[in-house]
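Researcher: Structure prediction, please.
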Amino acid sequence: QAIFCLLLCVPWGSSCPRSCQCTERAGAKAVLCSSRHLEEIPKDIPKDAVFLKLDANSITRIPSNAFRHLSHLEELDLSRNAIEKIDRAAFKGVAAGLRTLDLSSNRIRSIPKEALLALNAKLRLANNPWHCECALQEVLWEARLDPDSVQDITCHTAPREEYVGKPLLQVLDAGVNFCSVRQRTTDVAMFITMFGWFTMVIVYVICYVRHNREDTCKHVDYLKSLPSTQGHAE
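Model: Predicted structure follows.
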């Protein structure tokens, strides 16, 4: 009877990662892996997890499909890690149901906009060493950012020194458009390339004409040097 009762108490197909604690919160499963010295996302997170806390660890990367099997996931906390790279498909499979995603206080300089723009979750991106560029601007405009943390999205590096250290929102409010800057740079590069090709064509034509002119002159001089037909007749 004791063994039978024990089997009834074990949650079948819902094991908990060894370094984490699994508990119930308002009838939903919460997986707590905070401050466990993790360097990567655990592979054996229960599929029925609704709340997942991975904060205060040493995770450096969010690979593609890292949470794909967690179809019930609603809240994901990845704050206070050492995340530097986030793959384009990092949140594939949880984009529709995720309500909150915390990526604050990491080492993120840039992020593929495809990784975030598919999410309906409220995002926290504060306190990262952001490089202010077009992709980050598009995220700020189109993603659902937590309004309480927007002011803490600061330009750690930027195309112009005057933007460094300022909140990205403040820079954009001043009329700066990083996407148009990139477009102008692309246009200039295309213009320079086209000008280079045009110059090469002109130089080729000039050389070709000059070479033909020299050959013609040599041929004329050669003809002049030949004895005339009249001289032979006499």
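Model: The chain is about 35% helix and 15% strand.
Researcher: Thanks, that helps.
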